[in-house]
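Reopening closed ticket. The problem is back. First fold of the pair:
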Amino acid sequence: MQQYTPPTGPRMIAAQDTFDMYGTEPPEGDWPYRLDDFGTVYGPGGWPFHRRIERTEWHPTNPLITRQVDTGATKPARVRLSPDPGGSWYGRNHYVTLGPVGGDVHADLELYVARQGMGAMVRRATLVLDTSSGAVVVPDGCPPSLRQQAEERGRRLLAFLADACMERDAGATKPHEVLHTLLRKDDPNML
């Protein structure tokens, strides 16, 4: 199976469509993106998502094995998001990897092109999100038929980031309200 590799360079969009055997059409209605990732904590700075930095040390009671020990520090981390249309999972082509790059946020995603057999044709793209101005920068090479979908997904991602920053600024140490419904520990329907 082909691994996802985000487009690089000035185009930041794949030159051609690819087949995704699990691809689906975008969810209908008004739905948010939610965090679909583990081990994430809130950290300082403009980017809210961090991972704890650990070091390896010898186990104190068994010198033949090592263990990971939290250093107390964190570092900014990329995260995976998924649509949350009413507390269910959705096709993998709608997952997004989001992370800081310089002063911007890059969103690696797949845009739905068309149904193909039991799956879908998709186009890989990287959107640039400017959190200070609220702008979504769609790659220049994006076909006109996919531009509206890219802009809409970018707006949903900016709304997600705003919610995460509000939760962090309200004193939360780790994501909860922005977690996917099926990952929340207080949800009786959790897997």
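Second fold of the pair, where the issue appears:
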Amino acid sequence: MKSNIVEVAGGSFIVTGISYATGIAYYNAFFRSMNGNPDLFTVSPERVLFEGGRQLLYIAFNPILMFVGAVVALTMLHILLSVFGFTWIGDKYRWVKASTFGQMISATSWAYLFLFMAIVTSYAFSSGKAAGEKYGSQAVCVRSQIVLDKNTVTGCILYKTEAEVWLSTSEQGKSVLLNIPTDKYSSIRVY
């Protein structure tokens, strides 16, 4: 029982880490697609984890569903055949498990798990980056006017959180991405 709890807790940390890395890749690509330096913008950890988790689920859902479907189908076939006296599926499973190959796989399963997690992490990071770039290129302009303490700024709100607004505007003919903290503006007018 104790080892199962440790495995679940350890797996949770790994999945959280992969989600975080994927979310960071997503937001970095999002900001870069709008010519923004991602180091200058803060994204709350829950948004990073949500976006990373969403990307991870997008990547892993179909393969996991196919694997579970195959296991359920094989189990149902085994049960159905064993009712009629055919036990070759169970016999093959026990033979593979008792073989030298099966014992070697069992003894080095941690290395295969590490390799699998490295492949998933790499793919998830790349997928998050691609999704962030796609979202940034398809970002819709929400034409707005933000009333600051001393002046007004007009542009496109690209992203808004509880702590800040990210506004794309034009200054001296150049596109500028502004980060305006919530305590620096009094209202937002959306057109």
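Update: turned out to be a display glitch only; the data is intact. The helical segments are 2-33, 45-83, 88-98, 100-107, 109-137. Residues 100 and 106 are 10 Å apart (CA to CA). Please close again.
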